[in-house]
Amino acid sequence: MKKLSARRRHPLAALVVLLLALACTGGLYAAFAPADKAQADETAQSLAIDEGKKLYAVGCASCHGTGGQGTTDGPSLVGVGAAAVDFQVGTGRMPAQQPGAQVPRKKVIYSQAEIDQLAAYVASLGAGPVIPTEEQYGPEGADIAEGGELFRTNCAQCHNFTGKGGALTHGKFAPTLEDVDPKHIYEAMQTGPQNMPSFPDTTLSEENKKDIIAYLDAVNGEETESPGGLSLGGLGPVSEGLFGWIFGLGACIAVAVWVAARTAKAKKS
Amino acid sequence: MSTTANTDSRSRGKAPAGERVADWADGRLGIYSLAKANMRKIFPDHWSFMLGEICLYSFIIIILTGVYLTLFFHPSMNEVEYHGSYVPMQGQLMSEAYKSTLEISFDVRGGLLIRQIHHWAAIIFLAGMFVHMMRVFFTGAFRKPREINWLFGFLLFVLGMFTGFTGYSLPDDLLSGTGVRFTQGAILSVPIVGTYISMFLFGGEFPGDDFVARFYSIHILLLPGIMLGLVVGHLILVFYHKHTQFAGPGRTNKNVVGMPLLPVYMAKAGGFFFLVFGVIALIAGIATVNPIWALGPYRADQVSTGAQPDWYMGFAEGLVRAMPGWEINLWGHTLVLGVFIPLVIFGLFLALIAVYPFIESWVTGDKREHHILDRPRNAPTRTAFGVAWITAYMIMLIGGGNDIVATHFHLSINAVTWFVRIGFFAGPVIAFIVTKRICLGLQRRDKDKVLHGRESGIIKRLPHGEFIEVHEPLSQEHMYTLTAHEQYKPAEIGPTVDENGVERKAKSSEKLRAKLSNAYYGEGNQIPKPTVEEYREITSGHGHH
C-alpha cells in the first residue's frame, strides 16, 4: 500500500485512474446493454416520434395542444392511437380547414411517411388502436353476404344501403363510402371518427370488419356492375322520382307536342 | 240491313273477306250503327289534350308488364336461403317474395327489363295523372257537366297511389319493408281503431307473414280492377260529354272543332301509344329503378337512411317528417299526434282538390254547361288556388326528401325541416298572391294587345323628332280569341228587405258566398276586357298610335 500511496502524486496517476474508470464503464455497458437489433429499432422509433413531434407542432398543436392534451378547439389525442391519426390525416380530414358541423374529407396534404411519423408520435402519448395490416382489411377469405347483413344491421342507418351516405342532425352527415381505402374503412370502424360510433373488436370482430369491407367493395366498388343501367346515384326513390318526372314524363310530353303539331289541319293557326 | 247487303253482294259475286267478316260481326254485335255513331266523333287538337293519353298508355303498359311479372313472382313470406346468381346475397335468409324478385331480376329472361318498365311506367303514370289533372284544373275543364269525371280522375290518382304503394311493397326488400312499417305506424296512430286495423291487416303483430300475399291480391286484382272500371267510365264520359276546346273563331259552347276519330285520331293515338311505350322502354333500358338486390331482404331490426317511398307518396312522407313529434298520454293511452295529424292533413289536402269543382260552382253560382276552356290567366283566383295547392304539395315533397336535400346541398337537415314547416303555411299564401298578380298582369297585357296591337319592334321617327314604336293591329281571329272569355259579376247577398218591407237576415253562408264571389270576380280581381266602344275609339284616329 505504501508503494501505491507513494505514487499517488505521480504525474500519470490521474491518467491511470481515468483509463481504469473508462474500462470499467465500457465493460459494464458491454455486459448489460440490450442486443444490437433492438437497439437499432429503438432509434428508428424514437426518430419517427421526434419527427412526428415536429410535424405535430406545426400542423396540429394549435388545436390539439402542444402535448396532444387537447384545447377548446380540438380534442385530446392521448390514447386515440395510430389508427385514428392514419384515418384522419390519411383521408385529408386533418388538419381541419375550418370549424363547422363536421370536418369533411379533402385532399391529403401529408405523405404516407409523414402520416406514419405523426401516428407514431400520437401513439406515444398513450396506447390506442394500431394501424391495421393488409391481412386484416384485405378481401381474401371474406364472406360478402355476411358482410352485407352486418352492414345493413350496423351501418346502413347512417350510410345508406350500399354506403352512399346520409344526413345527420344539424348539418352533420355520414359520408359516402365510395372510393374510400379499405384500410381507412377499417380504421373508421376501429376508432369511430367524428360522429361515428366506434366498433372495437369486441363489438365487431376482425372477421366481421373484413366481411363488411368486402361487401362494400362488391356493391360500391370501382368494378361494381349496375345491372339495371344508370344507378342515379343509388339514392333511391327521390332521384328516381326526379328522373321519372324530368326525363320520363318530359320525354312523353315532348312527344305529345310533336304528335299534336303534326296535324291534318288545312290551315295552321 | 245486313241481310240485304249480303244478297246484293252475292248477286255481284263474292264480297271481299273484310266485308264478310264485318257483316258477320254486325249481324251479332251491331257494330255498324255503333261505328257510324262514333267513328266520325270529332276531337280537338292540342298537345295538352294528350296528357291523359300518356296516363292511359302507361296504365296499359303497366298491366301488360305486370301480367308477365306475376308469372314469376311468389307472393309468399316463407323464409328461404338464397343460392342464386347474385353473389352478395349468397346464403342469406330471405322471404320467397324477395328471392323470386331477385330471380326475376337476374335469372328470368327479360325479367329485369320488364320489372324496370313496370316500375318506370308506374312512376310516369302517376306523374302523368298529376299533370293531366293540372291541365284540367287550370283550364276549368272540370266545370259542369264534367264534375263526375273529375272525381273519377281523382279516384284514379288516389287508387294509383295505393296500387303503386302496394306494388312497391311486394318484393319485401329493406326499403319497401321500411315503408310498410311506416304505413303501419300511421295506421296505429289512428285513435281507438288503429290497433285493430293493424292487427287485422297484418294478421297479427307487424310484420307477420301475411302482408305480402294480401298486398299481392290488392295490388294485382282489387285496385287495378277498380281502376280499369274507372278508366273505362272516364273514357265513356269523355265520349259522352265530348271534348272541351280552347276558345277561338268558329268554336262555340255547342260545337267541337277538330279532326274525326277515324282515321286521324285512331292513327295518332295508336302511334302515340307506341311512342309512349318506346320512351318508357328506353328509360327502363337506360336507368335503374328500385335495385332491390342492393337493398337487401327486409328484416324488422334493420333500417337504412335515405328510405323514401316512390314520389307520389313523398307528400305523405314529408308531412310526417315535418311534423313535430307531439303526443298526448291520457289514462294509459297514447295519442300520437305527430303521426295522426299528418295522416288527417294527407286526407283533407287531397280531398280539397277533389271537391274544388263543387266549391267553385257554389261560390260563383254558375250552373251552366261549359265546353270552352278558360285560359288560366282569365280565372286568376282559381289559377292562384291551384298554384298554391301545388306549392304546398311540392314543399312537402322536399320535406319527404329532406335528408337527400340536406346532403346534396350541404345544408342542415334541421334547417330544411324548418323551411318545410314554415313553407307549408307561407308558401301557398305567397304563391297565391304572386300567381294572381301575374294573371292580372297577363290580362292587362291581353287588353293592351287588343286595343293597341302587338309590338312590332319597328322604331319610327316622326318629323318633329319623336321616336315611336309601331304597333301592328292583331288579326280578327286573334282579337276574338283574346276577348272570347266571359267575365262574371260577383254574386250579391240579395235584398235584405223582403217584399213586405220586413228586414230579412242574410244567412252567414250567403255572406261568405258573397265574400268569396267578390274574391273571384270583384273589382281588382279581374281586368275588364276591352269593349267594342273602347276599341273603336282608339282605332278611329284619336288613338295614340
From TrEMBL, chain A:
SUPFAM superfamilies membership: Cytochrome c (SSF46626)
Residue numbers binding heme c 1: C60, C63, H64
Enzyme class, spelled out: translocase
CC terms in the record's Gene Ontology section: plasma membrane
Keyword Metal-binding: yes
Top-level lineage group: Bacteria
Keyword list, A-Z: Cell membrane, Electron transport, Heme, Iron, Membrane, Metal-binding, Repeat, Respiratory chain, Signal, Translocase, Transmembrane, Transmembrane helix, Transport
Residues spanning the membrane: 242-261
Record-annotated Cytochrome c domain positions: 47-126, 142-220
Signal peptide: 1-30
Keyword check for tRNA processing: no
Enzyme Commission numbers on file: 7.1.1.8
One GO MF term: heme binding
UniProt-annotated location(s): Cell membrane
Reactions accelerated catalytically: a quinol + 2 Fe(III)-[cytochrome c](out) = a quinone + 2 Fe(II)-[cytochrome c](out) + 2 H(+)(out)
Record: residues binding heme c 2: C155, C158, H159
Protein name: Cytochrome bc1 complex cytochrome c subunit
Species this protein is from: Streptomyces griseicoloratus
Native organism taxonomy: Bacteria, Bacillati, Actinomycetota, Actinomycetes, Kitasatosporales
TrEMBL record, chain B:
Any one annotated GO CC term: plasma membrane
Any one GO MF annotation of this record: quinol-cytochrome-c reductase activity
GO biological process, one term: respiratory electron transport chain
Membrane association type: Multi-pass membrane protein
Obligatory cofactor(s): heme
Primary localisation category: membrane
Localization: Cell membrane
Cytochrome b/b6 N-terminal region profile domain: residues covered: 21-247
SUPFAM superfamilies given in the database record: Transmembrane di-heme cytochromes (SSF81342)
Keyword hit for Zinc: no
Positions of transmembrane segments: 49-73, 119-138, 150-170, 182-203, 215-240, 261-287, 335-359, 379-398, 418-435
Coiled coil, from the record: none
EC number from the UniProt entry: 7.1.1.8
Catalytic activity: a quinol + 2 Fe(III)-[cytochrome c](out) = a quinone + 2 Fe(II)-[cytochrome c](out) + 2 H(+)(out)
Official protein name in the record: Cytochrome bc1 complex cytochrome b subunit
Taxonomic placement: Bacteria, Bacillati, Actinomycetota, Actinomycetes, Kitasatosporales
